User: Fold this.
Amino acid sequence: MTTPFFETPIEYSKGVGPARADLLKKELNIHTFGDLLTYFPFRYVDRSKFWQIADIKDENTFIQLRARIVRIQTIGTTHHQRLVATVRDASGEVDLVWFQGVKWVLEMLSPQQEYVIFGKPGLFNGRWNIPHPELEIPSLQPLPLNETIRPIYNSTEKLKSKGLDFKGIGKLIKAILMNERFIMPESLPPEIIQGLRLINRQEAFVNIHYPQSPELLKKAQARLKFEELFYIQLRLAKQRYGRLLKHEGHKFLKVGEYVNQFYHHHLTFELTNAQKRVIREIRSDLGSGNQMNRLLQGDVGSGKTLVALMTMLIALDNNYQSCLMAPTEILARQHFNTITGMLTGLNVVVKLLTGSTKSAERRDIQAGLQNETVHLLIGTHALIEENVKFARLGLVVIDEQHRFGVAQRAKLWGKNTVTPHILVMTATPIPRTLAMTLYGDLDTSIIDEMPPGRKTIVTKHVFEPERAKVFRFMREKIGEGRQVYIVFPLIKESETLDLKNLADGYQSIIQEFPPPQFSVAMVHGKMKQMEKDSEMKRFSDNQAQIMVSTTVIEVGVDVPNASVMVIENAERFGLAQLHQLRGRVGRGSDQSYCILMSGYVLSAEAKKRISTMVRTNDGFEIAETDLQLRGPGDLQGTQQSGIMDLRIADIVKDEKILKYARNLASEIIANDPGLSKEKNDILALHLINMDKKHQNWGLIS
Ligand code: ADP
Ligand code: MG
Assistant:
């Protein structure tokens, strides 16, 4: 069999020798004709539009000018020579600069000639110039319509040095498109193509690289974006369906004594409507006979823990044990305390298992899990160690899921023959579009309503020189009986420096708030567990009015009397983290405050993060901004998700297409789970081809 055209190694392309082929592989991961064809332009320039020189003000956009050469100079010694050609249009002058090929360019340039100049301006010594532009003598004829839109490809310094700048890459692609063997096999069934009025694949590939018109470019983009998102969603839908078929679940049909007792006699407040809805969703999963695999999203303080507890009680009513896994020891303890507190008087046995549980206690717990006298086990990842065995594990609740790897989740599943139900809770709101892609095979519940009576946290940005004001404010609040958190950044790369920063901060706080009138607690990751616990306890018992800490405080800690959160070097925190930290206050009935401290010099992104925090308390809105600022690449959990490989679609901008693709994919899988019907042959085949390319996708879920 001959190699399909697409899999032809890049070396066989006209103009690609071994050196260029090597670079294309190393720099852009392009190995075949197909890879090159899916290396899409990142933008387009309209060649019928010309800029005025006086309007140049942006370093990052390609522009096109029409100007006459007024001066040509060579500057520097023979070895470091540069050529500067000054051009002028009606609005002003700008320098074109060449550092390489000076002699050759010099011969080519004609003084007083008018050129069409194309390039990316840069600022040099406060003056605009255009390094290594492209020049053409303006054509007397208008450009043919199909050449007015010019594709721009990303390139790298190394590729450029081998003549593969955006134009060079464009030429390679054009050569493939012009090859008589170039045929793009269709990847979508006619039904979908006609239904959505998509252009065919071949046309889409031609027009994405060489748009014949703006309309065709739009159509090509729509077609290729849809195709890309659709196949991701199709895979997820198939996986989800496969899971439902494969994993029979424990059937929890009963709502019995434990739930009723708790609901009617122990709950001191009414559930919010969102909590009620989510509990209904969970109950319907639990009774379905399939294994539940549900993601519960809700902002900090929205009452997820309570939902988890009710779910565990349902398991207990059906004679099953549950466990709750938290990412840190502090949080595990906190859950343990809250839950045992809420269950007092009910005959439920709850145990805590963490890394610091003593071995005698550990053995006791072990025995209790085996003879079913322990009903709920709460802990850290110590829970998933080999020797922890449950007699009847029916439900696993995982708090703050992104901290647990996929492998760890799988380990939990392996604990019983029938896979336990899984409820994953996260307080980091995930933008809807991202969740669809990242957790496409999980069912999602959202608590989008806060318990009543919560006051919006007032957030202020305060600059370093105004610190005295912050201290005054703290004194005032402490005088009213409230407590204060002060959080310092701590990142691994500069840990020593950061810890010193924290220690200095602690000293200056003690000076400002001296004993015996005040007491200041401190917690950081380098302390012994016992010290941490005792410092935490001093704070939660209100013996210390101020808690100085690193971000260990971030996750889930609950001290309702604390109403002020001061974040030092706020510019160094990510949005998600700032939001988490702010969620530590505003848990009681008092008005709460979050103070973001920073110096005056801030990057544009830091400014945007801080202003977003000041503007809104809505976790989903903050998550959207975070996604827009950073792109999906830096968000936790996205690395292996496949969305990093997106070639053309953008999960932020193409939300509509994504939703459509998702619905269509679920519909198709619901009607033909194995994609075995003839009309779906093309889908099955394309999915297999894609799996060959993206083997890492199997890791998700
Ligand atoms: P999350 O885990 O989502 O951050 P929690 O479950 O810790 O939130 O709840 C935060 C606080 O709100 C807790 O003190 C909890 O007891 C309380 N709470 C939860 N649900 C309600 C409700 N429906 N009405 C009033 N208070 C609630
Ligand atoms: Mg919580």
User: Anything to note?
Assistant: Residues 403-407, 635-642, 695-701 have pLDDT under 50 and may be disordered. The longest helix spans residues 214-246. The longest strand covers residues 63-75. The CA atoms of residues 348 and 484 lie 35 Å apart.
